[in-house]
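Milestone M4 deliverable, item 7.
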Amino acid sequence: MKEYYAAFWNLENLFDVEDSPRRSDKLQRTLKGELTGWTRDVLNKKIEQLAAIIKQMNDGAGPDLMGVCEVENDFVLRLLIDALAPLGRNYDIAHEDMSDRRGIDVGFFYDADLFFTNPEEWFSHYIVKRSATRDIFQVNFRTGSDNLLVVVGNHWPSRSGGQYQTEPFRIIAGETLAYFHERIREIQGDDTAVLVMGDFNDEPHSRSLEDYALSHRTRTKVINARTYRFFNLMWPEEGRSLGSHYYNNVPRMLDQFLVSKGVLTGDSNFEIVDSAEVLRFPEMVKNGDYPVPIRFGRGDSINFDGFSDHFPIALKLKEND
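Output delivered:
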């Protein structure tokens, strides 16, 4: 038996430097003054702050597999894993440039001594509203025991413009994720281990998750369902009035893990060890009445003591050989 520690974190605008040669002219025009002052020194400090948190995960061993969003490109993702070198891990990345208007992507880094993946088994699909949004990004991983773990990263359309006015866009994303789930199990088998993670910009009880992504809180319903359903691991945390993100000092469980039936039954050779959790290391939490995450920010509001406007989430998976 082996255990794996998986995590997800919205890194809050992990952009390349303001005048990066790795950025297209079109994207440079789109971002305009948004990155003013985002120098290499500032980027390095942002990386340092993020790495300081990630190095504490898994009792100081670091994650075995981690999904991230709001990263601009391979360059900044590799800077991050370089900063994790003290962990002694053989980290590699899975990333594709996506179609988001602001150029922020979903990606993964993973310990290549534990997981193997072929880029030919990476699949992404962007969601179209008036313009393309972040892709849903699927990566098929195999372990040393040749067990398949399909991981799907998400960063659904934001609530900017109003929660209910933008809800249809997240409903489209939920439908797309449900279709991914159906195709994965049709191709790989009904008991395939599927681990979905991301910033959904909706909560476990939202229509986009329950009615369209087919994500539920009842294990029995997921196991016995005739259709392809997910089990949402974040219901207990939401029930404790915890949030992975705060808006107007109200906690919102936007960052979530979903798993397939094969993970609940163990028939995939993977099982959940413990409930998922929101990680709140003391230095990340703002002092005061509301335990909000301390943002790193950008532009005129950079805080070198900050990290991200989201807390990370984590879980443990058990593999039965």
